[in-house]
């Protein structure tokens, strides 16, 4: 039931649970669930900006294989969604998403990702034409 439904419905379920039992639903689920299913349920209950914030922070702390997730967040969210995620990131971690990305990524990938996070697509195109096309393809698929 918690997994199904729209984010507003899931939020209402969390609020109703708290009013009824005096405990946060996520903490109650944490006691009952384990491993990947727990992670799935917890991520699903977060609103999109907070979910992106959590996943982006995790990705910045991992190896370069997580860069794909950072690029996915940066490229698939609308300007408003990305703005909400960036604000949520700053509120939760007391630093900007761009700071963490800059600190935990390197090379051309860092430059392109920071430009995409800022929605500077014109500069992304200019930068990508500036460097070897093969290297850009490797950045996007790695």
UniProtKB/TrEMBL annotation:
GO: which molecular function terms? calcium ion binding; calcium-dependent phospholipid binding; phosphatidylserine binding
Question: Which Gene Ontology CC terms are recorded?
Answer: cytoplasm; plasma membrane
Per the UniProt entry, the signal peptide is none
GO BP: any one term: response to cold
Q: Which UniProt keywords apply?
A: Annexin, Calcium, Calcium/phospholipid-binding, Metal-binding, Repeat
Matches recorded under SUPFAM superfamilies: Annexin
Gene3D superfamilies documented for this protein: Annexin
Q: Which InterPro entries match?
A: Annexin_repeat, Annexin_sf
Q: Which PANTHER family match?
A: ANNEXIN (PTHR10502), ANNEXIN D1 (PTHR10502:SF104)
Identification of the protein by name: Annexin
């Amino acid at each position: 039931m918690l997994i199904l439904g729209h984010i507003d419905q899931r939020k209402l379920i969390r609020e109703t649970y708290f009013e009824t039992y005096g405990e946060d639903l996520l903490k109650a689920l944490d006691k009952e669930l384990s491993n990947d299913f727990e992670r799935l349920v917890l991520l699903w209950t977060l609103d999109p900006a907070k979910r992106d914030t959590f996943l982006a922070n995790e990705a910045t702390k991992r190896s370069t294989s997580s860069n794909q997730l950072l690029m996915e967040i940066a490229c698939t969210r609308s300007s408003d969604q990305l703005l909400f995620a960036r604000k949520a990131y700053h509120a939760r971690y007391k630093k900007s998403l761009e700071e963490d990305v800059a600190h935990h990524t390197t090379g051309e990938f860092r430059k392109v990702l920071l430009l995409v996070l800022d929605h500077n697509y014109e500069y992304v195109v200019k930068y990508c034409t500036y460097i070897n096309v093969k290297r850009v393809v490797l950045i996007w698929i790695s």
